[in-house]
Amino acid sequence: MENNLITEDKQKNKLEKAFEILKTMASKPSGLIGLTIVLFHVVLALTSPYIAPYDYKAISPNTMLLAPSAEHWFGTDSLGRDVFTRTILGGRTALTVTFFGSLIALLWGGLLGIFCGLVGGKIDDVVMRVVDAFLSIPWILAMLLIVSLLGTSTEVLIPALGFFYGKGIVRVARAATHDVIAKDFIVSARARGHSNMSIIWNEIIPNVRDAILVEGAMRWSWMLLGFSSLSFLGFGVSPPTPDWGLMISNARGLMSFAYWSVIAPIVGLSSLIIGINLTADAFAKALGIDRSTKAPV
Amino acid sequence: MLLLILKRIGLGLITLFIVSLITFVGVEVLPGDACTTYLEREAYGAALDACIKRLGLDIPADERYLDWASNVVRGDFGYSLSGEMPINEVLGPRVKNSLVLASVSILIGIPLAIVLGIITALWRDKLPDIMISAITIFSMTIPEFISATLLILIVAIWLGWLPGIVIIPSDATFYELLSNIILPVVAISMIMTAHMARMVRSSVIQVMASDYVQMAILKGVPYWKMVFRHVLPNALLPAINVVALTIAWLLGGVVVTEVVFNYPGLGRLVIESISNRDLPVVQALAIILASIYVGINLIADLMTLMLNPRLKSLQIRK
């Protein structure tokens, strides 16, 4: 009975804390705008299959390159497909792939970073050398190579993106662990004879969690940028799946007279990336983490 | 000091060695070897045998790696599959074109970033800061292919001021290049400037809040003298590393920008060689781009060391 009460109390505290952080984030205009945009995109991604007015892959020679009108709000593209339909559906793949990709990046990057920061020594040296080596290969070259040899399915894209965007998190998690590790409570946990696993789980993770989460939120927006760049180059989702990067690359050749079919996906993609960025910044500020001096790596 | 520099160079070389291992092993582990992926459906009989012979794929992998690595150290990357010519000949003009694009962007970007960063920091939260910050945040968040596409749409198509895409051969002369690179340079330096300006801004703000600047204000040092004598030297030092990382980070972004503008540089070669499944060229590009990254970081580290006496003594004590 008593135990129940305590866990309930703990859960309530966690919820309250999360709500508190959300409130702090929304208290500044930039954070509020960011949260609104992200929420809008998530709701849109969940509901768009039900509200889309046309079939996204219906090709029709009669409706090619129509200007925006009451029937086709954003006009039509060079194959006669409705741009409004394709735009509201265009974020679904990108959002899913990058969300799960970021989760993978957070998990392996965070855990490996914490482990390296804790054990130090030879293992740490070797792992950091390898991470450095991976950092010095441009991500786009590695991603393109993997995708061109293994195919562009989501089962390839999610782990590949998760891997390549996690190596930066290793560094952040390791640095955050180094900050924590010299503190008294770790020393006393060691003196009490706790195992490495227990120290990682009970002492280090609660203290470095915030820093890693903020890094992960930032990675999400970079991964979205990377994923759309792949789509744009023709190495991401395959047609006729609606995707903003792919739509921009297809509509680019005809934009001298059909600019609407390139503007709509541009607005969709830019607003989502800016929204995630603003949210991540507000999240960092609400948790009291300063990211202003970080380099984009 | 000399020992420290040698140690840094050594670490850079170790990193490059690991990169060469990763690219080599990566190409080995991924399905299909260079010949079968390149020849695709024609991968049988005499053509396949000839290709395997030419690349030496019949030799065991470890020997092949040593052979390849020793040739790379001597500056020979082997033969390209699709062009059937030495990779060095393929790379030469591309490296030059990318170098022109990068150096013009850096020459414009760095001074502009410093000026913008200082303005936004000194007029923090006032109108100039809000306006410039909004533009810099916008241009550093949106993808390169979007800003490049918008530039083409607005400047080349709607206003008709400049050509939208670059139509020059890869061995064009410097003057032919110069008239064609304005839009690509704007697209690249926009993002680069934005990142660096943000960095300079927060660095200047930090230094302005420090004790010695407060002391200088209390002593009655004139405002601009204080800014140029006390604030800037200390604020720009940590920016060196970020400049290096930003340039290195742009190596990835340049690929996309070069494709959008059809610019015949290293970035487009990345896409071309991967589309052609020309794995020897891909390996060569990985090594070259990684060396540029390591080199830039090394130079930045050494510059910071030489310019900062405090860091120097700290490192020696370690």
Keywords:
heterodimer, A: 297 residues, mainly alpha, MetI-like fold, 11 helices, 74% helix, B: 318 residues, 2 domains, 15 helices
Structure description:
The complex is a heterodimer of chains A (297) and B (318). By secondary structure, chain A is an all-alpha fold. Chain A has one domain (23-287): MetI-like (MetI-like fold, Orthogonal Bundle). Chain A is built from eleven helices and no strands. The longest helix of chain A has 37 residues, at 196-232. Chain A starts with a helix and ends in an 11-residue tail after the last helix. Chain B is globular, with a radius of gyration of 24 Å. Helix content of chain B is 79%, strand content 0%. In chain B, helix 12 crosses helix 13 (266-275). The longest helix of chain B has 36 residues, at 87-122. Chain B folds into two domains: 2-73, no CATH class; 98-277, MetI-like fold (Orthogonal Bundle), CATH 1.10.3720.10. Chain B is mainly α and 318 residues long. Chains A and B meet through helix 5, helix 6, helix 9, helix 10 and helix 11 of A and helix 1, helix 6, helix 7, helix 9 and helix 12 of B.
CATH topology of the largest domain in chain B: MetI-like fold
Q: Helical content of chain A, roughly?
A: over 70%
Report how far apart the termini of chain B are.
12 Å
Largest chain-chain contact?
A-B, 44 and 61 residues
Name given to the CATH architecture of the largest domain in chain B: Orthogonal Bundle
Query: What is the SS-derived class of chain A?
Result: mainly alpha
Shape call of chain A: elongated
